[in-house]
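TICKET: design request
STATUS: open
ATTACHED STRUCTURE:
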């Protein structure tokens, strides 16, 4: 069940030095992501939860907000201060936030 009271923030509200956890798949990440983001695909989060930084709010992001909402809800249940980034990477890109890519050519949201 999805928690309608899940804490959320707009893409423009994520601090430049904030903790950003990108839970998209590898191909989505490679096409374009925020430079400061930590990448742990949604399907790997349970096994890699020790890699999630503590000591601050974790801003969880995916493409549009569905997967990140589920991951944020899971992290909160584990005692992590987590928020969902409303609108995901599409909103990030629309807000003019910077993107980088792992390959050649311009970064974009897949």
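STATUS: resolved
RESOLUTION: sequence designed for all positions
ATTACHED SEQUENCE:
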């Amino acid at each position: 069940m999805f928690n309608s009271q899940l804490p959320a923030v707009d893409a423009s509200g994520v601090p430049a030095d904030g903790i950003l956890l990108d839970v998209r798949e590898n191909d989505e990440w490679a096409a374009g992501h925020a430079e400061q983001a930590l990448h742990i695909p949604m399907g790997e989060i349970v096994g890699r939860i020790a890699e999630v930084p503590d000591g601050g709010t974790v801003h969880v992001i995916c493409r549009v907000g569905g997967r990140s909402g589920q991951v944020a809800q899971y992290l909160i249940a584990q005692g992590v201060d987590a928020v969902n980034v409303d609108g995901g990477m599409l909103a990030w890109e629309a807000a003019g936030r910077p993107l980088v890519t792992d390959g050649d050519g311009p970064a974009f949201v897949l």
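CLOSING REMARK: The chain has three helices and five strands. The helical segments are 26-31, 66-77, 88-94.
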